């Protein structure tokens, strides 16, 4: 007798689509390249001696120092223009934390297996890898500073370099895969546009400015 046809879902497993093959291949390349680039993932890694420097860079892109520094500046500022900029930077940082936490909670991609879980001040969602919160924050803060602070050209270049170095260090430390960082940069770049669209001012948020 003729064999019964296979269920459709089994056929899909036996004959994966071109898109499925392409995505699986890209994922494999991402994992392989990320592991090869994790040269500071441990003391015994190729660039293990540079690990302390990479961890300093890691702290420079962490959310807590940025939040505390912005809040302190907001409390100490005696200029209405400076308070407006700092209040919106605080809003941007909080929006960044919420969006990254939501995406990490939805995707739940584990961190690279070669990552050493010795990160600075972590929370439960930090066990997930996608996207890189440091990369998201670096892109967001970089755009914010370049747009709202008057800086000389060398300082503007340093801000951009800082954002790039923070992002690259995530892969070098083994904290993230390359796609985590790339998506984080794109997300941070886009979040700045949201901040600009929802810009807080004494006109549209008088209650907030009354607090200061």
Automatic annotation (TrEMBL):
Q: Keyword Transmembrane helix: yes or no? A: yes
The membrane topology term of the UniProt record is: Multi-pass membrane protein
Q: What is its EC number?
A: 3.6.1.68
* Entry-linked Pfam families: PAP2
Example GO molecular function: sphingosine-1-phosphate phosphatase activity
Q: Which UniProt keywords apply?
A: Endoplasmic reticulum, Hydrolase, Lipid metabolism, Membrane, Nucleus, Transmembrane, Transmembrane helix
The residues that cross the membrane are 86-107, 149-169, 181-200
- Signal peptide residue numbers: none
Gene Ontology cellular component terms for the protein in this record: endoplasmic reticulum membrane; nuclear inner membrane
Domain (Phosphatidic acid phosphatase type 2/haloperoxidase): give its ranges.
Answer: 85-196
Where would you find this protein in the cell? Answer: Endoplasmic reticulum membrane; Nucleus inner membrane
A Gene Ontology BP annotation from the UniProt entry: lipid metabolic process
Catalytic reaction annotation: (2E)-geranyl phosphate + H2O = (2E)-geraniol + phosphate; (2E,6E,10E)-geranylgeranyl diphosphate + H2O = (2E,6E,10E)-geranylgeranyl phosphate + phosphate + H(+); (2E,6E)-farnesyl diphosphate + H2O = (2E,6E)-farnesyl phosphate + phosphate + H(+); 1,2-dihexadecanoyl-sn-glycero-3-phosphate + H2O = 1,2-dihexadecanoyl-sn-glycerol + phosphate
Q: Which domain of life is it from?
A: Eukaryota
> Which family, according to UniProt?
Belongs to the PA-phosphatase related phosphoesterase family.
- This chain belongs to the protein called Polyisoprenoid diphosphate/phosphate phosphohydrolase PLPP6
Q: Look up and give the organism this protein is from.
A: Tachuris rubrigastra
